[in-house]
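Here is one such tokenized protein:
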Amino acid sequence: MSSVVDIRPTIDPMPLSHALVGVDVISVIDQQGQQASVDSLEEYPGVRGVTVASDDCDQDWIFVAIPGLTQHGIRFASTAVDAGATVILTDEDGARQAADLASPVPIVVVAHPRREAARIAATLANRPARRLTTMAITGTNGKTTTSYLMRAALKTKFADPALCGTIETRIGDLRFLSSRTTAEAPVIQRFLALAAERNLGAAVVESSSHALSFHRIDGIVFDVVGFTNLQHDHLDYYGDMDTYFEAKKQLFTPAHARRGVVCVDDEWGQRLARESEIPVATVSALTDHQADWQVRDTHPDQRISRTVFTLIDPDGGRHRVAMPLLGQVNVQNTAVAIVSAVQLGYEVNEVITSVENAEQIPGRMQKINPEATDQPLVIVDYAHTPEALEWTLRSTRELTRGRLIIVFGTDGDRDASKREGLAQVAAQEADILWVTDENPRTEDPQEIRDYLMRGIANVRPDLHDVTEVKTSRRDATRMAIQAAQAGDTVILTGKGPEWYQEVMGVKHAYDDAAVAAEVLHYSFTDH
């Protein structure tokens, strides 16, 4: 199976002193553990790459040891050296710990290893974003969907744009599942470099707030960036919404983008449009807020199983869009993707045609059995915040003749303040609730479910049509689907395309879509 270790663009060896241009070096420790001068780096042999992961290291690379939440990356320096690292770059704490490692390679000491890793990666890859047409998308909800739609929009001009995001990384025929929304800076630079080397012409990067806070996209100036929305999430890290917003806003600066597209359906989008440091086009998709581009007449078309809307351009031109995704929730994402491509100079109707032909997006309003008429419709969706879940359930209701049934949980070791609100939305919008686990991580699953049951009880004190499944998510999915009937819709939310369920630090193989398909096959098919 492919992974980041297969992203190996051709990079000519570069003298270490050149690779460190612009890096704020505090000191250098030679192979004997002695202080050396920065000038001594002039004679050091060439380097060909940089990484922050010891299992992604290669010959003549720089290994960047960064401090983590529980341990320092310097612990993996020996492994990186064995894999071919010829230089270690770390902070002063890492350098002190390295004294016990008897490192056979020089150590470059800096104040901010992660930030400097981004600078070095951009230098070694010769700033590949300059050789591509590039897009990036940020926002609490809709990033992944919009990134796929942006890729479809870019296919107006390019046959096979590269993609790096939550679900997968794609560079031509190289495809693999992603481990985080936005890869570390060295991986992003190699991703772009390989896309340029393969003449793909364009690339889309899904950018999380953490990517901006942790310098993962430093050194890249995107041609156009988009913003979908800002909702209650990640406050366990950022503390409050203002701090969270400021992290997102970094994408809309000259250091990261030339122009932008901002959805102004919420107060944060409106604020971003006012405060952006780059020129932006505004989009209003779900409200009547004044914007450059307006969405009107949104409605489901059962004949073609699509949601249709009219996109009104700044000159008053009206353009019909039959988007490839279900539900009003995705109107925002589709409109932002279309306008982003228009910002590149593409003709709007050509872009709409490209977007209407976009591929199915895994785990985003994904129909498991779209053609079935004699069994309940089953949908898998990633919605995991109260706002996203409300949008998703209301969109699903439009498609449902019978009962709307939800199977859901919520993540452990993540923002607990949203849990009861999430459950209240489920109780308000769905008919039947099956409460189960998502990714408990290191938390007690029962305590997480207790949060959800309290939220549900605020709406349904009698817990009517609510079942808590304590055994497994697989059991909850099976029970929910088998209890449903034709005309009902069963929606599995929270995990989307994830291939695992994380319990006590172990990622167990688990896929909502695969489990649902299996249950449907054995429950509604004659054998």
